[in-house]
Amino acid sequence: MNYEVLETAPDTTAYPKADGKGGYKLTDLPKVPKVSHIVGPSAIMLGAALGSGETMFWPAIIAQDGWALYWAFWVGVLTQFFINTELQRWAMATGESIFRGFDRLHGLWPWFFLFAGFVQLGWPGWAASGGKVFAAWTGLIPLTDWWMVGLATMVVIWLSYQAGPVVYNIIEKAQLVMMVLAIVGAVVLVFLVGSIGELANLPAGAVSFGTLPADVEIATFLGGLAYAGAGGYTNLSQGVWAREKGFGMGIYQGRVKNPLRGDSEPETVHDGYSFEPTETNLKRWKAWWKVTQQEHFLTFVVGLLVIATGAMTITAQYVPSGQTVTGNAVSMWLNIVIPQLGSANAFLMYMVLFIALFSTQYAIVEAFTRNTVDIIYQVYGREHGMNVSRVFLGALTVFVLWGMAIIGANAVTNITTPWIFLVLGAAMAGVMMWPYNALTIILNTTRLPEHTQPGWVRVIAMWWATGFFGYFSILLIGDLLSSSFGLSVFSTTVDIVSSGVGGYVLWLIALAVQVYTMYRSGQAKLETNDTVENAEEAAGFLA
């Protein structure tokens, strides 16, 4: 399809707002495929989550603080279901990534998230922790030489991108295989090690809303909330992967190719698309939302609940009561849990952990590279004639080399505990989700027309997500300022009222963000009501 010859969407309430940053070309919304044909983006997202919250943070939290915190896990998972599907809404409606949408709100936002994303994902803790697991599993190298496996992991990841002409397809297939292995392995382990009885404690913990132990480590807990899913910068990839997979209007965009493979022509990622609100297109939009929600729920949500809960039952049974383990979840598995399992079960446990950590590092490299390239290309590269595929290869190579440099520095600095990499990244992930939750619902209500806007249930869900991550982000910021920098005036407490004077200022900032988010998005919903004829034809369950 020749983008340039298509008619430009008029500047009316029936089409997305351009904000002076490129218009939208008109074409019909494509036909809706079966759910089985669009499985992919959520499998990659699940892979990104396996080695963080699902097998590390949450099993450690439950082992140390008990099932009373399980409520925060499942609430976090369902919250991320709404966040992730809202992140892909912009791609489905316009064919653009969420970063292009943020750029339409303000040009600084994409660069802010690029910086925050590097702080979160620039430390290869998953490859490092995977190296430690591999060393303990095989005995081929001393445990202190885990960094050698970490380096090999990064090399294997880079080489895997050369396996085919379309970059996205390679990652999708690899993650689907690892996802299936991890789910089957987790289920089998629960029965083999006899931890299934722990599920009897789950119902009470699932409804213990608001329970927070006085001594809970806020950084680890916020990391757990962020990683009750993929978390942070990785979540923002959902919209980019949805475009690459061809969700909605994303099917008309070019895909990133491997420039080292000379068997395919490069494709172009254009500005946005839009569709006329005809009866056919409105019905297709409703159907698209149905299948994409099913894809995300059945793959991402169900997969997370099965794997993470299974891992929690094992640590809850085998970690002694009262033992502190959230400081290093990798050591918890290697030094406390696995030695009690017996050789055959231990072998399977090692395998599941290594797959989880490898799949996460794989997805992290993919997410950081793809997001970063999208930001650079959308904001700067397209206007300057950059080849998006070559930019991708360059960014991939630089990021892999950076990760190898960090891991290799172990040989000089003798760092032996890679867990700190994960805690640092996880805390940033949680803090980052606060502003982009607010921006996403503001974008989707103020820039999209009535028939592609989120319904009120989703608007309220995103208000909740903004407040949820805002609350725990303020707790973390206050904890860092008071504990790490000695600024006790900024101390923040769970009950809010016992916070310091500076802590009250932080809470007022959170309140201001929440009120502004609710006002802007709520006002936009009310203003666009009944502005598109038959818009209700596009409304569906949780759409």
In short:
With 543 residues, the protein is mainly alpha-helical. Helix content is 65%, strand content 1%.
Characterise this structure.
The chain has 543 residues and is an all-alpha fold. It has a single domain (23-412), classed as Hydantoin permease, CATH 1.10.4160. It has helices at residues 35-38, 41-65, 70-94, 98-105, 108-121, 125-138, 146-160, 167-192, 202-206, 218-226, 237-245, 279-318, 329-337, 343-381, 388-408, 410-413, 419-446, 456-484, 501-528, and strands spanning 24-26, 272-274. Strands 1-2 form a two-stranded parallel sheet. The model has no long low-confidence stretch (mean pLDDT 88).
Pick out its properties.
mainly alpha, two-stranded parallel ribbon, Hydantoin permease, 2 strands, 543 residues, 1% strand
Radius of gyration using CA atoms only: 23 Å
Mean pLDDT: 88
Uncertain stretches: none
- Helix proportion of residues, in percent? 55-70%
Keywords: Membrane, Transmembrane, Transmembrane helix
Transmembrane segments: 38-61, 67-87, 108-126, 146-164, 176-196, 216-236, 297-320, 332-358, 391-413, 419-443, 455-476, 496-516
Protein name: Nramp family divalent metal transporter
